[in-house]
Structure formats: C-alpha cells, structure tokens
Amino acid sequence: MGSFVRARLLHWAVAVPVLAVVVLILAWGRSLPGLVIVLVVGVLAAAVQAAVHHAEVVADKVGELFGSLILAVAVTVIEVAMIVTLMVSGGAKTMTLARDTVFAAVMITCNGILGLSLLIGVLRRRVAVFNPEGTGAALATVATLATLSLVVPKFTTSRPGPQFSPAQLTFAAVASLALYALFVVVQTSRHRDYFLPVAMEGDIINIEERAKPPPTGIALTSLALLVVALVAVVGDAKIVSPAIEAGVAAADLPQSVVGVVIALLVLLPETLAAARAALRDRVQVSLNLALGSAMASIGLTIPAIAAASIWLDTPLLLGLGGTQIVLLALTVVVAVLTVVPGRATLLQAGVHLILLAAYLFLATSP
C-alpha cells in the first residue's frame, strides 16, 4: 500500500501543480531574467496539461456535461482574475483589456477550438457528426451575449465612446448572468440529451456509460489539484505578463494583442481537452467545450468586470471596433451554416480556422 501511495504522489499530474505553485511562490514579485521566464513558461505549459488531466478525471466522475462546465467556469474565473489584476496595475492603457480579452476568447473558441475539433473529427471519420439542437442553442446564446456585451456599447449614446452607462452596464451584467444560468439548466437537466454525442446514424451515445467512473476519493483529489493547477496557471501567467507586455511594445504591436495572449493562455486547457475529446470520437463534447467556454467567458466575465468597475478608476470600454464587429458577424453567420446540418466536412473546419487566422493577423496588423 505504501508503494502505491508513493507512486500516486510521484505521478506527474500530482507533481506538476505542486511544482507550479512552488515556482509561483519563488518568482512572485521579482524581476526575472530571460532564462527564468522561459522556465516559468515551461512550467506553465505543464500545469495546463495537468489541469486538463484532472478535469477529465472529474468529468469521468460527474459526467461529461458537468465536467465541461466545471472546466469552463474554473478557467473563466482565472481569466477574470488576470483581467482585474492587470487593470488595477495597468492604468489607462488597460481601458479596453476586458473587451479585447473577451472578444479574443470568443474568436478563439468559436473558430479555433471549434475548427480544430471539426478538423480532427473529419480526419478520423471523413464527416464530423454532432447534435444540431444543442450546438445551435449554445451558438445562439453566445451570439446574443456577444452582441449585447460587445457590439451594443458601440452604438449607445448615454456615454461618449464605446462604453455603457452604469445602468446599461448593470443590465448587461444581469442579462449575461441570467442567460448563462438558463443555458446551464437546459444543458444539464431539461434537454440534456441535446448535448450528448451522436453516432454516424444519428443515434445518441450515452458517453457516461462507456467507462467506470473513478472512486470518489480520486475524483475529489483531482478536483482539488485542478483548482491548484489553474491557480498556478494564472499566477505564472501573471509573472510572465510583464515580459509579454514588453515584447508587445518592443514589436510595436497594438495593445490589444495583450488581450489575445491572455486568452490564448487561459484557453489552453479547453483547447487540449477539446482535441482529446475529438480524438475519441466525441465531437459533440468538443463543441460543448468550445461554445461553453465562449459563453462562460462573456456570461461570467462581464458581470465580474462590471462589479469590479465600481472600485476601478479606469474607464471600461466594451464596444468593439468596426473590423472586430465584421469578424464577429462573419463568425456567427459561418457558425450557423456549420451547425444547422449537424454534419461538417473538411471545408467547414478550414473556414473556421481561416477565420481565426484572419482575426490573429488583423489583431497584430489592424
């Protein structure tokens, strides 16, 4: 029994979160040389892998739908913490950080993660099959949240510039939270079968019967280590953020690129989890992760930032620019055409990935 316990403690998924926290404690608040920054980035990447592993263990215990929800919410909490931390210390130059990060998360999830998931599914089965009812409902919620929170501020007239008045921001925050909560109820209870994978013939696959769930003790341990790993991810990402900001400035890139980098970092766990699900013929689970992450990014981040804006001195600019609105509208239209048939080919996967490439290019060269 003792050797078994030692083997469990030496397991990489247990050791990495602990190592990441140790690195976080040792490096916090210090000016680090380049080689140490590279080391922190390596530990950060390993912590992301550990987070995905533990999220999958928790998902095996509570079910894929709740597991996807736990990962999306946990990562969104990390995203909010990073945004607020940088806004507190960044001053006026961070006025658009929340907008840039949330928009980047939407584009990465709805084009990058979704496109990658479809690509893997297509390469395995020639045609990626999913449930259009559930995926369509998720997409409609994402489109509504994105429009209310990121597009409408561009056209309101109560305040100068692309920002809400306090009353408008409160409404947007409450509406976002209410929509997200409503979706969670629909996904996990009333219409749960809409979000389960389907076979090529259209039959629903009960993925929760495919494997024996882990013991409760192991699941609880993985849940605790998931939290530790995600805290380490945000902390280590915060440590390397000055180097990111300095690199963005040195490369003469727009300040909005910082938001893109933050979104890429915090969405790594979902990206890896979605890719693994697609490799296991669970394309629907991958799409749940992609659209669920986009939904959580807006539905939880906007209310949290709205609450934080009470004591933040920095104005909160949420309205997108013209180019960003065009990209968002194109993403929604393409995603609708992808989702409605319930089947996707290599072409749909390629279109979404090209849209992500266009967004990343225009973010660096507006």
TrEMBL record:
Q: Where are the transmembrane segments?
A: 9-28, 34-53, 65-90, 102-123, 135-155, 167-186, 217-235, 255-275, 287-311, 317-339, 346-364
* Main subcellular location: membrane
Q: Where in the cell is it found?
A: Membrane
Which keywords does the record carry?
A: Membrane, Transmembrane, Transmembrane helix
Pfam families membership: Na_Ca_ex (PF01699)
> Could you tell me the membrane topology recorded for this protein?
Multi-pass membrane protein
Q: Where is the Sodium/calcium exchanger membrane region domain positioned along the sequence?
A: 35-188, 222-364
Cite the InterPro entries for this sequence: Alkaline_pH_Ca-Antiporter, NaCa_Exmemb
Mind telling me what this protein is named? Ionic transporter y4hA
Task: Give the organism, scientific name.
Answer: Planosporangium thailandense
